[in-house]
Design a protein that fits this description.
Length: 421
């Protein structure tokens, strides 16, 4: 068992309301299992990555159109985050998670039978909606199952479940699309089975009865830009400052990485494209276990620095046409996202009460995914206009500047905001 199971909770949780939290006697294996629906949905989120080259060949569309297809995932996700966090905090985790998993299964059906750009857009939209529900309600459910004494463990497992699923999806799709018949169908048939097991997990998840109707009951409109309680806005801002550049970097690798491999660097293997995405998110998973005991301020600073270094490596990769440098850039991007995500979630888990936690998770992801949708799309169209080398270079330099600014913001913030006492 990981030693994190017995790690003391941050002092901030001692005064947090315990309404909606599971008792600390919940077995540790249930905390791990509660994270499985997050993993299963994130497998779907990136499963299409190695397949875009096939769809581009069969349907015919540009790199700009490809990034638009990718961006509709962000549209669905942002739209979902506007309501799913608040809805989950008010009516419970399961009533939000179960419809999201059904929508994810519908996305598998559309992906598996897609013959047009419109179908790909619909599938990506459905996927984004499902992911939005999972990153708010699903990640909060892991914290509920863990209980107040294990909130830092819950943040670690929920964050790792997200990035591990995001990496497993493209690897699974790359291998199956090369070795199995009907590549764009088989991949999503397998993913549908994984999602079915996630449905069973949610149905059996030992969420406490009080979680269904948290007290005090949240107020305000049901559909709104998600936020955090008064006094915790700085924690949210610091998380976004580092998480947003990190997830934007990995989004670029996911959307245009296969094009870089096949067009610029001369590698067309879908297994290679899927494996690159997998090792990127494997780095994001592993680095979180490696840094989990560091102070949050240190984790966030390291995340910003790693993302910045990753963008410098990306620029070098496209300038020298070196596959090894591109893979290194992907690893650094994954590590940067992982640390930014863990630091942001840990700050929120330590400061936000359970009845607002799903909305706070949604707010963190809105701040991260907005640039993750806009900047890669801009880079895709810029690459169509001026070439992939110039487009990737401009993107890398812009994100480098954002990562450096995020790191400076963390260092300039008072320690008591980011570090446990």
């Amino acid at each position: 068992m990981p030693r994190t199971a017995t790690a003391p909770a941050p002092p901030a949780t001692a005064t947090a309301p315990t309404t909606g939290a599971a008792p600390t006697t919940t077995p540790l294996w249930w905390i791990w299992l509660a994270a499985w629906p997050v993993t299963a949905v994130f497998v779907l989120s990136n499963a299409a990555t190695p397949l875009y080259v096939l769809w581009q060949h069969d349907i015919g569309f540009s790199k700009g159109t490809l990034t638009v297809v990718f961006a509709f995932y962000i549209v669905g996700l942002i739209g979902s985050l506007l309501v799913s966090g608040v809805l989950s905090d008010r009516i419970g985790r399961k009533p939000v998670l179960l419809p999201a998993l059904v929508l994810a299964l519908a996305a598998c059906l559309v992906f598996g039978t897609a013959t047009s750009v419109a179908a790909l857009i619909v599938a990506r939209l459905f996927t984004g909606i499902a992911v939005g529900a999972v990153v708010s309600a699903g990640m909060a459910a892991v914290t509920d199952v863990a209980g107040p004494a294990r909130r830092r463990t819950a943040a670690l497992l929920a964050s790792c479940a997200m990035v591990f699923g995001a990496g497993l999806g493209p690897l699974l799709a790359g291998v199956l699309s090369e070795l199995a018949p009907a590549p764009t169908t088989t991949v999503f048939a397998v993913e549908a089975v994984l999602l079915a097991t996630a449905v069973l997990t949610v149905l059996r998840m030992p969420l406490p009865r009080s979680e269904r109707r948290p007290q005090p009951k949240p107020t305000g409109p049901w559909i709104r830009v998600p936020g955090v309680p008064a006094g915790t806005g700085r924690q949210l801002a610091l998380g976004i400052a580092v998480f947003a550049p990190g997830i934007t970097a990995t989004s670029f690798v996911l959307s245009l990485g296969p094009s870089l491999l096949s067009g610029l660097l001369g590698t067309s293997s879908r297994i290679v494209a899927g494996a690159m995405a997998f090792v990127m998110f494997l780095a994001a998973t592993g680095v979180q276990f490696a840094v989990q005991r560091l102070r949050r301020r240190t984790i966030l600073t390291a995340g910003a620095a790693t993302t910045a270094l990753g963008m410098l490596t990306l620029v070098a990769a496209v300038r020298t046409e070196a596959v090894a440098l591109l893979v290194l850039a992907a690893l650094l991007a994954g590590a940067g996202q992982g640390m930014g995500q863990l630091g942001g979630l840990s700050l929120l888990n330590s400061a936000v009460p359970p009845q607002r936690l799903a909305e706070a998770n949604a707010a963190l992801n809105v701040g991260g995914y907005l640039p993750a949708g806009l900047l890669p799309v801009s880079a895709g169209y810029l690459s169509d206009a001026v070439g992939l080398t110039t487009g990737a270079t401009v993107f890398g330099l812009v994100l480098l500047a954002l990562a450096v600014l995020g790191g400076l913001l963390v260092r300039a913030t008072r320690r008591r905001v980011t570090d446990p006492a």
